[in-house]
């Protein structure tokens, strides 16, 4: 492990911002720390970089406990959401800034500046001042500046959140390329699940100061360990149900009983459960003909045309609202229709997981 | 349902948006300008060179040129670090510290001078201890410096604090993560970025120090500085007697303002 957080907790006054968080980064890995704003991500960044002394727990870099080490003695490169280029220095002076305190001879220093400016394709702008660069160029200089001293870990704290969509996607690909080329161990902090899933080898999903799930993006998306992960990684419909039988597992949604043959979860009869189903997994059928797949009669409430697809909002007989993604042939508002939910797309969560 | 649209009022016909504030501001400007022009108009009636050539005037100019830069330097060297601490930390009793910084601005200079006398006067413990080793804290150039620093230092502290406060703390954090300790981060990042505000504060402090009268009069009526000389001459000879010294004081302040701003590459004092 290059970086390990061990049972990290941090309190601001009486407010617990980070609550017993542990995870680690392997060498060369790109891990995304994902969670809604206010979930404690930034506090973790600050603790890793050394700008915050955690209330409890340890930060370990390359096997050394650095919890009490000041930022300048750790080798953690950092890029914030807000631009932090030094306006009184040129692009190459900014990139060279982090090289001066390291024990590198001046000729090698110039070479390194050139190398890293080449890496972000900004060699032409080396004598420009940050104010003369576009937003995307400024981001790239920040990356070059953070990478030039060859840190053990690169921490990117919402580096794309202040940019517009097109630029964000461009830079996302560029970060992926730079990470591949340099092989730097990277902690990418974001609230954007799409960004996290597109970039990361592994996700650490956080909610309310705690880790809600750790794993590969696809695994977490397809079998989320908690309802929070299910709803935060992509859109999810939530339905309340009750278990009526264990073998085979049968739940009631209002008056409808649905058998879930494939589910291996153990719930005793009478347990209230929450079902999560992704809008893309649902489909619509006009006839109420009984089929083998679970289904629910619903009324169409609203149809939104999003170009690539339709989002059909329906209300089930149980009163729950569901969103169904439909690629064509949208139903009419007010129509009564059957929503088909494939068994293997239903995630069940018991009351202790709420 | 139809929402009725109210008719556009006559007010929305185009009148220059800044007319009213411009008129009000113009009145203040006029009030600033008239005494200035009136005073300058007096210059023809007196011989400036002769007025400044008397031995008394020479001594006063020398004393002011010695004391005001020293006071400004002291205020800057001790005030800028204080400003940085105030901009970057919060602690119990910070309000009290901030109130203390503003106190010399609020206290009338004469009262401030009286307070200084009660602290460092000849018969106080501090004053007596200094006198015992041959240093006079009152009625000396040192006394003038004490009075000027007391009254003028808040300007550089307050302005520099605003300058440091305007710097995103993350610029300093980035510098720390790039391998610089707190002191070299202050030197390489915070100080250059707050330079404009600090220079503005230095200019204001110098202008206040060289023009200081009230506190100086209480602490060190002698040796005379330009403002105390002005007072003595005014009592003896009226307005026309002080025009040369008044102009000289104004001139020095303007020259320092221009020079410091040229060095600091700051456009104007207030443009921060």
UniProtKB/TrEMBL annotation, chain A:
GO molecular function: ABC-type tungstate transporter activity; ATP binding; ATP hydrolysis activity
GO CC annotation: ATP-binding cassette (ABC) transporter complex
Catalytic activity: tungstate(in) + ATP + H2O = tungstate(out) + ADP + phosphate + H(+)
A family per Pfam: TOBE_2
InterPro entries noted in UniProt: AAA+_ATPase, ABC_SmlMolc_Importer, ABC_transporter-like_ATP-bd, ABC_transporter-like_CS, Mo/tungstate-bd_C_term_dom, NA-bd_OB-fold, P-loop_NTPase, Transp-assoc_OB_typ2
Keywords carried by this UniProt record: ATP-binding, Molybdenum, Nucleotide-binding, Transport
Domain called ABC transporter: residue spans: 3-233
S-adenosyl-L-methionine listed as a keyword: no
Subunit note: The complex is composed of two ATP-binding proteins (WtpC), two transmembrane proteins (WtpB) and a solute-binding protein (WtpA).
Protein name (record): Molybdate/tungstate import ATP-binding protein WtpC
Taxonomic source organism: Natronorubrum thiooxidans
UniProtKB/TrEMBL annotation, chain B:
InterPro entries referenced in this protein's UniProt entry, alphabetically: MetI-like, MetI-like_sf, NifC_ABC_porter
Membrane topology field: Multi-pass membrane protein
Protein's cellular compartments: Cell membrane
A single cellular component GO annotation: plasma membrane
Presence of the UniProt keyword Magnesium in the record: no
Keyword Transport: yes
Alphabetical list of PROSITE patterns matching this protein: ABC_TM1
Limits of the ABC transmembrane type-1 domain: 61-260
Entry's Gene Ontology molecular function annotations: transmembrane transporter activity
Superkingdom, taxonomy of origin: Archaea
CDD domains: TM_PBP2
Keywords: Cell membrane, Membrane, Molybdenum, Transmembrane, Transmembrane helix, Transport
Bilayer-spanning residue ranges: 18-41, 61-87, 99-121, 141-164, 185-210, 230-260
Family that this chain belongs to: Belongs to the binding-protein-dependent transport system permease family.
Name by which UniProt lists this protein: Molybdate/tungstate transport system permease protein
Organism in which the protein naturally occurs: Natronorubrum thiooxidans
């Amino acid at each position: 492990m290059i970086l390990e957080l061990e049972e990290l907790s941090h309190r601001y006054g009486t407010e617990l911002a980070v609550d017993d968080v542990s995870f680690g980064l392997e060498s060369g890995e790109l891990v995304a720390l994902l969670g809604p704003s206010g979930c404690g991500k930034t506090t973790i960044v600050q603790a890793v970089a050394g700008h915050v002394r955690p209330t409890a727990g340890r930060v370990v870099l390359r096997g050394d406990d650095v919890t009490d080490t000041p930022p300048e003695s750790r080798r953690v490169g950092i890029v914030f959401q807000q631009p932090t280029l030094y306006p009184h220095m040129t692009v190459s002076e900014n990139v060279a800034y982090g090289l001066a305190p390291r024990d590198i001879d001046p000729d090698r220093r110039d070479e390194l500046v050139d190398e890293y400016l080449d890496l972000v394709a900004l060699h032409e702008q080396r004598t420009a001042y940050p104010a003369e660069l576009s937003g995307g160029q400024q981001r790239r200089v920040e990356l070059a500046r953070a990478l030039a001293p060859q840190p053990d870990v690169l921490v990117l704290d919402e580096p794309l959140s202040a940019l517009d969509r097109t630029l964000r996607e461009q830079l996302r690909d560029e970060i992926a390329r730079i990470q591949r080329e340099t092989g730097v161990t990277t902690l990418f902090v974001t609230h954007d699940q799409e960004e996290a899933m597109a970039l990361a080898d592994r996700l650490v999903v956080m909610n309310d100061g705690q880790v809600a799930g750790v794993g590969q993006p696809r695994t977490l998306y397809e079998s989320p360990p908690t309802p929070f992960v299910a709803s935060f990684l992509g859109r999810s419909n939530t339905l309340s149900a009750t278990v009526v039988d264990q073998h085979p597992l049968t739940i009631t949604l209002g008056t409808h009983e649905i058998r879930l043959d494939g589910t291996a979860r153990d719930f005793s009869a009478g347990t209230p459960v929450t079902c999560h189903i992704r809008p893309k997994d649902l489909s619509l059928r006009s006839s109420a003909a009984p089929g083998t797949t679970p289904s629910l009669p619903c009324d169409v409430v609203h149809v939104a045309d999003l170009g690539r697809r339709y989002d059909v909002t329906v209300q089930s007989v149980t009163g729950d609202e569901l969103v169904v993604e439909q690629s064509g042939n949208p139903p009419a508002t007010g129509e009564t229709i059957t929503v088909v939910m494939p068994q293997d797309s239903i995630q069940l969560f018991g009351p202790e997981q709420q | 349902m139809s929402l009725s649209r109210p008719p556009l009022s006559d007010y929305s016909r185009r009148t220059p948006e800044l007319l009213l504030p411009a008129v009000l501001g113009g009145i203040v400007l006029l009030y600033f300008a008239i005494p200035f022009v009136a005073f300058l108009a007096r210059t023809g009636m007196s011989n400036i060179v002769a007025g400044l050539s008397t031995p008394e005037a020479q001594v006063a100019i020398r004393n002011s040129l010695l004391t005001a830069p020293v006071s400004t330097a002291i205020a800057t060297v001790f005030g800028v670090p204080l400003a940085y601490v105030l901009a970057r930390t919060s602690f119990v009793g910070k309000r009290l510290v901030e109130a203390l910084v503003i106190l010399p601005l609020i206290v009338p200079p004469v009262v401030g001078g009286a307070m200084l006398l009660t602290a460092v006067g000849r018969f106080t413990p501090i004053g007596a201890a200094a006198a015992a080793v041959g240093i006079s804290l009152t009625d000396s150039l040192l006394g003038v410096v004490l009075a000027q620093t007391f009254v003028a230092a808040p300007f550089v502290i307050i302005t520099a604090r605003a300058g440091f406060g305007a710097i995103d703390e993350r610029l300093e954090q980035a510098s720390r993560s790039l391998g610089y300790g707190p002191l070299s981060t202050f030197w390489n990042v915070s100080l250059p970025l707050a330079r404009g505000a600090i220079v503005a504060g230095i200019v204001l402090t110098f202008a206040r120090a060289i023009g200081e009268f009230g506190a100086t009069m209480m602490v060190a009526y002698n040796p005379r500085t330009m403002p105390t000389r002005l007072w003595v001459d005014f009592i003896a000879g009226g307005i026309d007697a002080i025009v040369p010294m008044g102009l000289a004081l104004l001139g020095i302040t303007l020259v320092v303002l221009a020079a410091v701003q040229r060095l600091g590459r700051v456009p104007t004092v207030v443009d921060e």
